[in-house]
Design a protein that fits this description.
about 75% helix; about 55 residues; mainly alpha
Length: about 55
């Protein structure tokens, strides 16, 4: 029975660490301004593919 508790605790700990990592990544992205002015990025991708804005 103790082995089952350790397995459940281990899975909980791993999921908690993954959630903490995702939260840290989100905070870092928001603090560095990666979510600001995302509109020009799609035009850069289209220009890289050879597609103009008018077409």
């Amino acid at each position: 029975m103790d082995e089952l508790r350790y397995l459940i605790f281990g899975q909980f700990l791993v999921s908690l660490l993954m959630a903490l990592g995702a939260l840290c990544f989100f905070v870092w992205a928001a603090a560095s301004g990666l979510f600001e002015d995302v509109e020009p990025v799609k035009y850069q991708v289209l220009e890289g593919e050879g597609i103009t804005r008018d077409a």
